[in-house]
Known about the structure:
CATH topology of the largest domain: Transferase(Phosphotransferase), domain 1
Number of domains: 5
CATH superfamily of the largest domain: Transferase(Phosphotransferase) domain 1
Strand order of the largest sheet: 1-2-3-4-6-5
Strand content: 15-25%
Structural class: alpha+beta
Radius of gyration: 47 Å
Largest sheet: 6 strands, antiparallel
Number of strands: 28
Number of helices: 15
Shape: elongated
Amino acid sequence: MTRAFLDGDIGRVLGGRYRLVAPIGRGASAWVYLADDVTLRRRVAVKVLHDGLSEDDAFLRRFRAEAQTAASLNNPHVLGVYDWGHDDVPYLVTEYLGGGSLRGMLDAGERLTPSQALLTGLEAARGLDYAHGRDLIHRDIKPANLVYDESGRLRIADFGLARAIAEAGLTDQDGSMVGTARYAAPEQARGERVGPAADVYALALSINEAVTGEVPFVGDTAIATLMARADTPFEPDVSLGPMQGVLRRCGALDPEERPSAGELAASLMASATDLARPTPLPLIGPLVGVEADIDSTQHGTLHEASIRVIAPDTDNDDPGPRWPWAILGALVLIAAVIGGYMAWDRNQPVMHQLPDLAGETQVQATEALGDLALVPEFRDRRAAGSSAGEVLETDPAAGVELAEGDLVVVHVSLGEPLVGIPEVDGLPVGDARDRLEGLGLTVGSIKEEAHEEILAGYVIEALVPTGVIELAPGTPIDLRVSTGPAMRAVPGIPESLDPDDAELVLADSRLTPNRTSEFSDDVPEGLVIRFEPSVGAFVDAGANVTIVLSDGPAPRPIPAVIGLDVDEATAILRDAGFAVSGVQGDPSLPVLATDPPAGELHLPGISIVIATQLNGG
């Protein structure tokens, strides 16, 4: 659009309702005007898209769908969309904000402090979290789309418009597709599918630029910018202070590694404790050469008209009386005054007393205000003793007289104030339950699992999403609870069979060693025969395992061999484990006795003497 075309649009009424008052900005796709809604008598912003788009049926279908979707968003950090239409050119009607954009501040040479940037990022993240929760992705987050009202509250502009324009094939001045390359995420640069993580990435770049004035990876062309960004993680400037960590995560190459918008908001809140309280933003109003306090409610004001009463010429020779002229002048003046009053009265706004909406639902409040032609702006907050969705109060307060079309801020409850998450790790389950319920939280599911260090029945960990530091009352907290150490198999006996080594093996498996002993013909005295329970058996941690040691072979009785011949007796004694050390008497004669005698208990290996009858005995 040329400047002449722009000037020619001033005073034009779109859709029979929106009178364009003054230009307040431009972009690759549209001019933005301050306008008067002559129906509701309020100030609005109208975005008039390029006239070339009016011939693109595919774009118009997408534009209608995206405009309807954007109009359904109702969040204090998303710019309100009031209306849309096609009057020679497509246009979009939104709430008018007098604080300008972050882009305007940066272009004016202003830079935000880390505290101011954190607040801007926090409000934007909350708006994105709201939209992402409704499966809406912005696709073109940048400083120009972060706009402020006169008090410095941030709104995100152009939800849905980027997608409609992109699908129409509209390009920026350097040939890049809309969805500004300066803030495109790596996956956009690689031509991959765009999800909510792309909005988080672009917001991180915008926060960085708000403090430093610089956007990383910006090349001479859009292609150069995209190529630089495709393979290099974003590293936030050190001046971002405690925000560096979370912004670095937002700049990860892999979208899966970035925090969600809600997690980003929580992390920024946590970082705020390390920063000074933010000073007011250096707002740059959007109007250049236009009065910022245009009163859009004063349509149809009666302009003063000069009424000239023609007095008779004093030099006239006509001697006739002059009073008829005076009466006529007075009548004309009275008629003018009456007509002026009637015109003024007809154009006075219709006034209504604001009803008390406290305790009503948001739907009920919308209907009540709509019946009075008042415009609601809903703002969410938490309040003790309230229920989610309940109207807390209005601004102005109930009872105030308002003109039709006036704005009413309706504060709606998100429920009870959030609760800090208590520390319950290491507590018995009963104590953990008492502590959570004492704060208005509840115990959710309990997942039992073995733990080598924590006793059975004690909490290992409370399962809370990463980055969440506060929860709504009534939120269930899942717990991991220990069942104690896991069962373990009895280990193998050490090769040395040394009892001290055996005790170390059992102790390493967190088992309790005990000792006992028994006779063994196979294992030397003092060495390990076996474990009880046996090797490989599963037992509880700390269970007793007995080390059975060898006392050597057991004593046994001397076999009875009397009456047998010497060779046969010797074989029997040796088979019993004893040695025969000699024969007293004639070895050809039968055995008469043994020493030690038959029946006595002795350890295997002792020597036995066999006695026989002497010759001639």
